[in-house]
């Protein structure tokens, strides 16, 4: 996906989240984020937006602490909207050769990294808000869904901090109906993923890209989402238990 497409996805998801919040009590529990209520979710995402915006705007070379702003009640929606506006504007104005802190392996440029990361950060948390509101998850566009699966498998879970570890080697194959093939090797080390179809696997999960996106980001249960899986069920149970982001 192009940078502009990621920025547009960020904007759409942020606006959609605000629309859900406008019709849902701030006290609604977020089942996909145990211990959080909707106001905690929106406050967290608003602080993440401000954190990312500062890193890009100031071209910071190292990680800085996440802000701890604590708005609540009637002020929360406006505060969130201001942060979303600022992040969008800063990403649009940034140079393509921006050099600043990034935190996932394989980043091809800081501006592209932050546009992509915040598009998926906001899209995944939109799903959290919809779950809090007891709504059906809105469909994620195919290109964005495939891109987000790729970020999750080749970025987040390629890091040493990934908790997805298997006592014995296992291979998870991921296959989107609209395209996209990944082979993820699980072991006692961090997962290793290549962008190709598996010739042999212990478990394979396949289906529409949007459903795979929700399932692999652990916002939908693989036993209930419109996905198909075959092979060793323990691999999917391991993913559901440990692939939390």
TrEMBL record:
Keywords: Isomerase, Pyruvate
Domain Mycothiol-dependent maleylpyruvate isomerase metal-binding: 8-130
Entry superkingdom: Bacteria
InterPro entries found in the cross-reference section: DinB/YfiT-like (IPR034660), Maleyloyr_isom (IPR017517), MDMPI_C-term_domain (IPR010872), MDMPI_metal-binding (IPR024344)
Pfam annotation, one family: MDMPI_N
Listed NCBIfam families: maleylpyruvate isomerase family mycothiol-dependent enzyme (TIGR03083)
Protein name (Swiss-Prot/TrEMBL): Maleylpyruvate isomerase family mycothiol-dependent enzyme
PANTHER family documented for this protein: CONSERVED PROTEIN (PTHR40758)
